[in-house]
Here is the input.
Amino acid sequence: MSAPTVNAAAQALMHEFEGLELEAYPDPATGGEPITIGYGTTAAAGVGIVPKLGMKITKAQADEYFRLALVKFAAKIRPLIKAPINENEFGAFMSLAYNIGPGAFAKSTALRKFNAGDKAGAAQAILSWNKANGKVMKGLVRRREAERALFLKAVK
Here is the structure.
């Protein structure tokens, strides 16, 4: 099985939902940690930056941190995927893992169903990751719907 890449559609989806912030900000769900900058980059991404409130970066730096994060996240989730996967499915999983973390993705029903050959069930399971601090968040509902749509979109 060849390793799919994070295609333009997946990157656009991630950019849309992460947004671009050139000044560090606290996590909107917690009002604090993790501190985030660029396209959702936190210290946990391990790409050479530890965002702190008041820190500023350029768009070029944000793009580079995002690129590095995609490489790292792909390296973490590719080995977890045991079934054949196309680039849209992989891109949707990358967006999900980027948002919830690779550890949570590794334990997800979406991954388990996918690896069992249940692609429809995997697509549906993506939608369950719509809460922050136990509350359904409209932004996460929209993001999960977009990830599911990408996952189900035929590759041309």
In short: Helices lie at 8-18, 59-77, 87-100, 102-106, 109-115, 119-126, 138-152. The chain has a mean pLDDT of 93. Strands lie at 21-25, 36-38, 131-132, 135-136. The chain has seven helices and four strands.
